Fold:
Amino acid sequence: QGFLVALTGNEREGDRRKHCSRSCPHHCLCYEHAELVDCRDRGFVRVPRGLPHGTWLLELGGNNLSVIGTRAFIGLWSLRVLVLTNNQIEDIEPQGSMDMLPGLEVHKLRL
Structure:
């Protein structure tokens, strides 16, 4: 059994954001009904603040993240999938909240 998560670029940014009543970091796309946050390929050097607390999947691939700070995912109790592919990560500081991530995708890290 599996599922497919598709984050496509077919909708205009305004159309995607209008469905989101919760906060969404600037330059990210939040999909409220699926609880997905797409922050990929945005040039972030740190995990953005203001992520919705109900986020289930957080896509941070293709950014310029080098260090994942201790409090990067604080308050994201629903987070189950974290995608950190194609970043410049050199250090992931201890994260108490990361213990509950059964599917942590961290391919192509320089750790």
